[in-house]
């Protein structure tokens, strides 16, 4: 059944007169065909357009249809009711037909998928069977070829053995004949010569035995007397030399200590007024800061899981950044800003304890990077020193922490001084192992054979003097490069200013115990390699005097038979490098 609805009136005067559709339900009256135009098209002679929308006349109001009879009214109501019933009707057959189509499509698709899977499985199975068949065929053919090769090889080997045995038997027979003839002749000659030799040997033996007995007795008596005399003279000379050496060393030590004590006492007021400290005071201060970091900062951080997690997360961000350093100003600036702005001093400030712990970890990472990278490549110390210098200038309390960690990794060499017999608080060392650790020595890596018979891992031995020298030299090279960088906005910490270089040389040259160590010669060479020419420009003639003193220590010696670096092979090689470096500095200054 089709229904038609009358269109709305068009505002256009042309379309307004188009033919009205007839209602099949009597909603509008039938009108004469003459009321409409004969053609739905627009007459070109009567067409026109308005100048604006306001000129378009409003459509006339459609008059209501007047229902004339009751039959027409009833027909209209039935039609409206039929339309409503049609729009609201729900046909179960149509719903069943739609659902049936869906189920049929789903079943067909499921069957198609199952068939495709079955086809794929059969194809895979066929391929696998064909592959196994080909593999078995190849294996069988390979076994047949191998068996044939083995048979041929065995046959060849048998033929070679047979020929070899024949040649050996022939050679053996031939040589047996030759040897028998030679032996017969040799036996005749040997028997004659042996008889003559025995007679001569018997006579010579008697004469030599008599002469030997006489010489042995005389030599034995003379040697005993000479050995006894030499032993007495050597023992007496060694005793006197040892006593004299000990006496001289004791006198020299007492005199040096007395002079040092008197000098320090006399200069005590001046040092206090000038803000200067002694080497032992610097060591105790660095040691106390290190122990305070360990007990008051790191132990509480590691004991609380949340603090340890936050500390570890930030610490792990520092290591790759320090490892990515190159001698590029932009990269150095970006890495420095990242460590300062994102890790150490983020917008959300860390608690004081976590801040101090991160500074300690930052110092340790920098020093470990110096141990590995600078030892292998000297130029890598320059970007590392620049990053460290900037962080020392921008981070509060970082200079004290960094210097304390520096003393921990290098012993007392950054000061420099000899490690005392007691800790900073006056407590004696428990054993030599503790004092060795404080001196900066590290244990070597453990190996599988470092386990005793009970299955307990033995403590690893400490590193050798050569490993210790190389590691300390790499760290101190970074420290000397830091001293070389001029300050930017404000004075640096006293331990990181250029005058510290003069203090370092003055202290190490004034301590004979330090000078005899090969480490001293290696560090003097490192300092001269980094700061030698720069210090000559700063201090001029005074630095030349310092170089003269160093040169005398490596060529003539600072005492009787004593040189800078000692007498070991490592000290001798380091002393030679110092000599060459001093000569280079003086030559370049001319």
What features would you describe in this structure?
Residues 1-15 have a biased composition (Low complexity). With 590 residues, the chain is mainly alpha-helical. It folds into four domains: 15-90, no CATH class; 133-266, no CATH class; 279-497, Serine Threonine Protein Phosphatase 5, Tetratricopeptide repeat, CATH 1.25.40; 499-590, no CATH class. The protein has 16 helices and no strands. Residues 1-48 have low confidence and may be disordered.
Could you name the key traits of this structure?
590 residues, mainly alpha, Serine Threonine Protein Phosphatase 5, Tetratricopeptide repeat, 4 domains, 70% helix, transport
Enumerate how many helices there are, as a single number: 16
What's the architecture of the largest domain, going by CATH?
Alpha Horseshoe
Average pLDDT, all residues: 83
Q: What kind of sheet is the major sheet?
A: none
What percentage of the residues does DSSP assign to strands (E)?
Answer: under 5%
Give the structural class.
mainly alpha
The named CATH superfamily of the largest domain: GLE1-like
Cα distance, first to last residue?
119 Å
As for the number of domains, it is: 4
Order of helices and strands: HHHHHHHHHHHHHHHH
Number of distinct beta strands: 0
- What is the CATH fold-level name of the largest domain? Serine Threonine Protein Phosphatase 5, Tetratricopeptide repeat
Q: Could you name the CATH class of the largest domain?
A: Mainly Alpha
Shape: flat
Helix content: over 70%
Give start-end ranges of low-pLDDT stretches. 1-48
Integer-rounded radius of gyration: 54 Å
């Amino acid at each position: 059944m089709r229904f038609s609805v009358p269109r709305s009136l068009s505002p256009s005067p042309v379309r307004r007169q188009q033919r009205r559709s007839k209602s099949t339900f009597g909603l509008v009256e039938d009108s004469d065909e003459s009321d409409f135009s004969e053609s739905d098209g627009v007459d070109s002679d009567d067409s026109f357009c308005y100048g604006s929308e306001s000129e378009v006349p409003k459509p006339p109001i459609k008059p209501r249809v007047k229902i004339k009879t009751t039959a027409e009214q009833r027909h209209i109501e039935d039609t409206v009711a039929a339309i409503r019933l049609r729009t609201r009707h729900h046909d179960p057959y149509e719903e069943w037909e739609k659902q049936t189509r869906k189920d049929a499509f789903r079943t067909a698709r499921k069957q198609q998928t199952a068939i495709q899977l079955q086809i794929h499985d059969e194809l895979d199975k066929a391929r696998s069977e064909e592959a196994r068949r080909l593999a078995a065929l190849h294996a069988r053919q390979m076994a047949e070829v191998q068996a044939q090769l083995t048979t041929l090889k065995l046959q060849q080997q048998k033929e070679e053995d047979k020929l070899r045995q024949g040649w050996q038997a022939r050679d053996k027979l031939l040589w047996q004949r030759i040897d028998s003839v030679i032996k017969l002749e040799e036996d005749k000659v040997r028997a004659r010569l042996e008889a003559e030799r025995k007679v001569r040997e018997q006579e010579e033996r008697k004469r030599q035995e008599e002469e030997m007995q006489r010489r042995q007795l005389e030599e034995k008596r003379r040697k005993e007397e000479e050995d006894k005399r030499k032993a007495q003279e050597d023992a007496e000379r060694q005793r006197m030399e040892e006593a004299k050496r000990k006496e001289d060393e004791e006198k020299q030590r007492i005199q040096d200590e007395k002079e040092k004590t008197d000098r320090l006492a006399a200069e005590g007021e001046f040092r206090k007024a000038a803000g200067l400290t002694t080497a032992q005071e610097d060591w105790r201060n660095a040691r106390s800061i290190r122990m305070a970091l360990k007990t008051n900062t790191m132990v509480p951080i590691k004991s609380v899981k949340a603090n340890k997690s936050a500390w570890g997360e930030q610490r792990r961000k520092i290591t790759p950044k320090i490892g990515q350093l190159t001698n590029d100003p932009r990269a150095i600036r970006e890495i420095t800003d990242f460590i300062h702005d994102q890790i150490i001093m983020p917008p959300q400030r860390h608690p004081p304890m976590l801040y101090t712990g991160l500074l300690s970890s930052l110092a340790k990472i920098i020093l470990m990077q110096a141990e590995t990278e600078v030892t292998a490549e000297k130029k890598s110390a320059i970007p590392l020193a620049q990053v460290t210098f900037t962080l020392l200038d921008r981070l509060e309390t970082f200079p004290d922490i960094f210097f304390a960690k520096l003393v921990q990794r290098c012993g007392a060499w950054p000061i420099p001084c000899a490690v005392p017999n007691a800790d900073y608080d006056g407590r004696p060392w428990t054993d030599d192992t503790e004092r060795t650790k404080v001196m900066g020595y590290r244990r070597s890596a453990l190996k599988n054979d470092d386990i005793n018979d009970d299955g307990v891992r033995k403590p690893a031995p400490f590193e050798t003097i050569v490993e210790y020298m190389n590691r300390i030299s790499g760290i101190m090279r970074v420290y000397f490069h830091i001293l070389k960088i001029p300050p930017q906005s404000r004075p640096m910490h006293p331990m990181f200013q250029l005058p510290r270089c003069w203090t370092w040389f003055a202290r190490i040259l004034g301590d004979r115990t330090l000078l005899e160590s090969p480490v001293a010669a290696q560090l003097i060479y490192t300092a001269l390699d980094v700061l030698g020419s720069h210090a000559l420009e700063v201090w001029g003639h005074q630095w030349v005097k310092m170089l003269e003193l160093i040169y005398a220590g490596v060529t003539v010696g600072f005492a009787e038979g004593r040189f800078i670096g000692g007498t070991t092979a490592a000290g001798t090689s380091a002393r030679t490098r110092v000599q060459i470096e001093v000569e280079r500095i003086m030559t370049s200054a001319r």
